[in-house]
User: Fold this.
Amino acid sequence: MSNLPASTAPASGIPTTHPLVKGEVGPGCAKVDPIVIADSVTRQFGGLKAVDVDHLEIPRGKITALIGPNGAGKTTMFNLLTGFDKPNTGTWEFDGKSLAGVPAFKVARSGMVRTFQLTKSLGRLSVLQNMLLGATGQKGEKLFASLIRPIWKKQEEENTARADDLLARFKLDAKREDYAASLSGGQRKLLEMARALMSKPQLIMLDEPMAGVNPALTQSLLGHIKNLKEDGTSVLFVEHDMHMVMHISDWVVVMAEGRVVAEGPPETVMKDPAVIDAYLGAHHDTDLGDLMEDGPNPVLEAERKAHEAHPEAETSGYGDTPPAAGVEETKR
Amino acid sequence: MDWGNIFGNAVGELISPTTAAYALAAIGLGIHFGYTGLLNFGQAAFLLIGAYGFAIPTLAGAPLVVAVLCAILCSVIFAFILGIPTLRLRADYLAIVTIAAAEVVRYVVTTTGLTDFTGAANGLSGFKGTFAAINPIPQGTYGFGPFTYSAYDWWVRIVGWVIVILASVLVFLLMRSPWGRVVKGIREDEDAVRSLGKNVYSYKMQSLVLGGVLGSVAGIIFILPRAVQPANYTTGLTFFIWTIMLLGGAATIFGPIIGSMIFWVVLSLTQGILYGAIESGAIGFLSTTQAGQVRFILVGVALMLLVIFRPQGIFGNKKELSFSV
Assistant:
């Protein structure tokens, strides 16, 4: 299936060592302080091996970007790591604890919280209720304790105060009492991120946080992601747009056709021939305009969805960046 | 036409035990569908299990408390049987399983092989003794106008409505709590709730059991003024309960109560008026039997109109439903 090299010799000009890395920089390289370690994780959809990752480590306390063309298996990898999908093979651990086969809700409780490519704001709950739902260890969430308010009143007040802080930080405080369904797409992205933070996660996994968000809000989202790192939270996010990735990530993992084809700091990883191959294929010196024709092609769009989609995996409702769609065509 | 009698009967339905039983069943269904988003199309089965679970031990000589606990226990077990295989799947599967399971239990109690226990198609009667024995109201007839009932009838009404009120308070307390927030979150998007570290499966099971228990208690109240008849527990009963819940508003506290009252008052009024009109010759093309069926056609039409024009019900929040989430 894959004619891409699984690993590549470092091209000239790419440093082979990095402070985050133990040993040599390369696909699947060991990190000095990993928070997630995955081993031989595979997931097959029929005849398609959507994910086939031999080894992957995510550094702690850093912003790691997971990039790759459409259908590279990024979202599937996300689903596997967070327990939303079950792999055919593989083990992975988070913060030293094995998470293979652990259900999604327990993964979240252990401190690894995710967001979704298609935002999942809880429409008919208020913004504040959405936020409060994110708090963990709530006494009032037990059936019998919930009947007696004094048991959970104090905790609820603390959570509300924290939710208000976060809402103010994400500039959603004016929307506090509104139904989440009344928010704009970008505000929902913010809400989802803020809600995930309510549980004070060690690692937050953002699935295309910038998709469908206008440029101004993108800047503010990027700022929020940077702030997360400053607060000591590790971040792993999926993104299509390489330029967005350059600005904020400390480390970039590139996937293509289910495999990790390259890894490295953002400044140099783009020069890796494997990345150029993955993104541009054989046409990388052709004018992209010739491939794009008139914007996103509906056939390609459908094809991409079929490629990425699985009953449990979400499909992107957002239009893709035209180069990526064009590349998709040339890859086949 | 005897308008006084027609209105008297209709007003009597306001506090009838049947109204209370349907209200309680609708409160249970409201926990399932209105708050948690579980599509339970087998609420009739919970009423049936409550009815038989109460009547069979009573007829075998069990005291009242034991019989009630038996009914509740049976409904809990039934909820688990329904929930364990289906609650991990999408909501639609629960709908299919519940509607099928409700028919299965109805056929099981109707089968002649079980005549000794369930009375087969004839059902059960003669189980009111233990309940009547603890009636503190002295023998006699009480009340005024249309609300004149015997001591036993009053006893059934008082107990029935007290239970309905207790169930409403329970739902109110639950739904203002963080527990209620989690189940409402599950209604909106269970994957999102899962991603926030909540055990969605467990919450759905708790909700299914809780609503089912209320359904089974409703089943007990339902049979106290009458006999147990398997023919009462068809899918029609489930859809009446759905109508009542949607009429009042699915995720509301008073919705099921008011919905049940309106439902039964309207049924009684239409019956009275149609029968009166037929007897007085005003309507010549209908027999009284047909008129009985026409009432239920009206229920169907009302349900359709309700869902199309006022999906939030009487007490529901218009704003809440104006989002097509």
